[in-house]
Specification:
It is an enzyme of class 7 (translocase). With 352 residues, the protein is an all-alpha fold. The chain contains 18 helices and 2 strands. The protein is globular, with a radius of gyration of 21 Å.
Length: 352
């Protein structure tokens, strides 16, 4: 199959790659701040380890390929990949897990394909899936959110660093995420009874204590990027819309077989991070306007299917990678026609 090239018009005067990446880093700050507030120092420790690993791996790969190291490091793409991975991985994860995830993202998902602009899959999600499949136990343990701690404080920096260095965690400071708890904890109960018995839900305003604030923070960062024109609204809105539609269609009022409420799916897990910071990656997503709508809607549906009927409680990473697979085919059938050419004539010319 010969894929169709993007037709004119093309945008001129766009922000440089480095400037775009700087805005993405800035927009991640609210989410990072709330993650640190709710789950402690682990997120900042993840960021430090992932950033150092990403820069070292990027520099080593560029040097081996004979490319100017300083020039490419200044585009901030390695730093963005590191931060996206750092906020997606559990705080207080063992240091080696963060290193493996980041190295896989930079070396396998990015540099093997030729570097920035050539990777068919989102690097951060590749790194995340590598460690999710390889180390499910370490990936399923998140610190207890602040609102459920008896002394209303997270572990200090010293114990947090020790937990990351030894990989042993901190006794009494970890538990399941809202999506994980809901998926494996209902066990024949009505949703209302289950929620009432679980402080993680009963003390929450929307969808899971701590997690709702994290998702609202990433939503705020995403709105900032939309306002700055870093990406268009089509893919995020389509993803959130299709996920919401699936949640409404299959919501049965809260029986023991319920797949979860609309609010649970929108404000738990990595929903807002995925919608505004992952699927909007311009390299691995669809490029046409209609294509972005289809791409986003496909990912939203896949997230719901994986969460409700799959083996993983969240599913954002797998849904994004499946969407990356489909992006070239979506573009093949949704790119606009060149001005003055009929669809049939254009197809005939490109098949020659």
């Amino acid at each position: 199959m010969v894929f169709k090239p993007v037709s004119s018009p093309h945008r001129h005067g766009a922000l440089s790659t480095a400037r775009v990446m700087q805005w993405v880093l800035l927009a991640l700050i609210p989410g990072i701040a709330v993650l640190t507030w709710q789950f402690g120092w682990g997120t900042l420790i993840n960021i430090a380890i992932a950033t150092v690993t990403a820069l070292l791996c990027e520099a080593a790969a560029l040097s081996l390929r004979g490319r100017p190291v300083g020039f490419y490091l200044r585009d901030y793409s390695a730093a963005v990949t590191a931060l996206l991975l750092a906020v997606a991985l559990p705080p207080l994860a063992p240091w080696w897990l963060v290193v493996i995830a980041t190295a896989s993202a930079v070396l396998i998902a990015k540099q093997v394909y030729g570097g920035l602009g050539y990777n068919p899959f989102n690097p951060a999600m590749v790194g995340y899936v590598v460690v999710l499949i390889s180390f499910p136990l370490q990936m399923s343990s998140w610190p207890t959110p602040l609102g459920l701690l008896s002394d209303a404080s997270q572990p200090s920096l010293g114990p947090s660093l020790a937990a990351v260095a030894t990989g042993t965690g901190i006794d009494g400071w970890s538990g399941a995420t809202p999506l994980d708890l809901f998926k494996h904890g209902v066990n024949g109960q009505l949703v209302s009874d289950f929620v009432a018995a679980q402080p993680l839900f009963s003390q929450a305003l929307l969808a899971g204590l701590g997690w709702e604030w994290v998702n609202l923070a990433f939503l705020a960062g995403g709105v900032l990027l939309l306002a700055k024109g870093i990406f268009t609204w089509h893919a995020p809105v389509a993803m959130l819309g299709s996920l919401a539609l699936m949640a409404l269609l299959f919501w049965d009022g809260g029986s023991s077989h319920s797949g979860g409420s609309l609010l649970l799916h929108l404000f738990s897990g990595a929903t807002m991070l995925g919608a505004f910071f992952i699927i909007t990656d311009p390299v691995s997503s669809a490029v046409s306007t209609r294509g972005r709508l289809i791409y986003g809607a496909l990912i939203g549906v896949l997230i719901y299917l994986i969460r409700v009927w799959g083996n993983y409680p969240d599913g954002v990473a797998f849904a994004v990678l499946l969407g990356n697979f489909a992006a070239p085919f979506i573009d093949n059938y949704t790119l606009p026609r060149s001005y003055g050419h009929s669809r049939a004539r254009r197809a005939t010319e490109q098949s020659k």
